[in-house]
Amino acid sequence: MVNLGTLVQYLALQGGPQQQQQQILSGDQFNMSLITETTYTLPSLPYAYDALEPHISSQIMTLHHDKHHQAYVDGLNAALKGLVAAVKANDLPAQIALQPRIRFHGGGHINHALFWANLAPAGSEETNADKVAGGLVSAIEGVWGSMEGFRKEFGAALVGIQGSGWGWLVKDGQTLKIVTTKDQDPIVGGEVPIFGVDMWEHAYYLQYLNVKAKYVENIWNVINWKTAEERFLGERDDVFEALRAALKF
Ligand SMILES: [Fe+2]
């Protein structure tokens, strides 16, 4: 793993202070013998492909997980392989040229790994926010006045995304924020992703066609508030547990 720490740290540093980037990119900071190939694998869905019906169809879940997410994992592994070769060759231009691919495919892997875990079958205990997410619900009510007020604002942010992107509820220090990200840009700075909603067309179009607002309306039936509560109360590193589990040295 190029001695860069985790992928999350690496992606965070792409937008980080110039000094940190220079430390990472400076050849004399590396013990080249420590640089090894690493691969990520597709994490299994924590439920059946049809478990989120009728709100997200089995067909969408199958294609989304097995094809789209797999493609991000494959793209990330290929880019990281190239990065290892570029670092070993002290080819700084090649290392820089690979960064957009790592950001896109690495972000795609991070985002989808977080997304699967923050969904659950409708009607399950995990989707009952009042029962399983008392701390988070209180915090949301503190910021937006009510859960309904939060859902309204979050839904508007999702529907307002132009092109492909994601909507996230994040913990930023002691407060909560709604943020949207473009393409596969992940939440890898200081904010803690609580839950995200995939707003790429591949996430809904086969079922909802152009009626994006209906997908957004129905997503509330399958949000896993238990996972959201754990992310809200836990440490930032815990959020990326699935990502670490998908890492093979
Ligand atoms: Fe997706």
Automatic annotation (TrEMBL):
InterPro entries assigned to the protein according to its UniProt record, in alphabetical order: Fe/Mn_Superoxide_Dismutase (IPR050265), Mn/Fe_SOD (IPR001189), Mn/Fe_SOD_BS (IPR019833), Mn/Fe_SOD_C (IPR019832), Mn/Fe_SOD_N (IPR019831), Mn/Fe_SOD_N_sf (IPR036324), SOD_C_sf (IPR036314)
Catalytic activity: 2 superoxide + 2 H(+) = H2O2 + O2
Lineage top rank: taxon: Eukaryota
Keyword GTP-binding recorded: no
Gene Ontology cellular component annotations, sorted alphabetically: mitochondrial matrix
Annotated binding of Mn(2+), by residue: H64, H112, D198, H202
GO molecular function: manganese ion binding; superoxide dismutase activity
Major localisation: mitochondrion
Keyword vocabulary terms for this entry: Manganese, Metal-binding, Mitochondrion, Oxidoreductase, Transit peptide
Residue ranges constituting the Manganese/iron superoxide dismutase N-terminal domain according to the UniProt record: 39-120
EC primary class: oxidoreductase
Residue ranges of domain Manganese/iron superoxide dismutase C-terminal in the record: 134-231
Cofactor(s) needed: Mn(2+)
Cell location: Mitochondrion matrix
EC nos: 1.15.1.1
Assembly notes: Homotetramer.
PANTHER family noted in UniProt: SUPEROXIDE DISMUTASE, SUPEROXIDE DISMUTASE 2
The protein's name in its UniProt record: Superoxide dismutase
Species of the source: Echria macrotheca
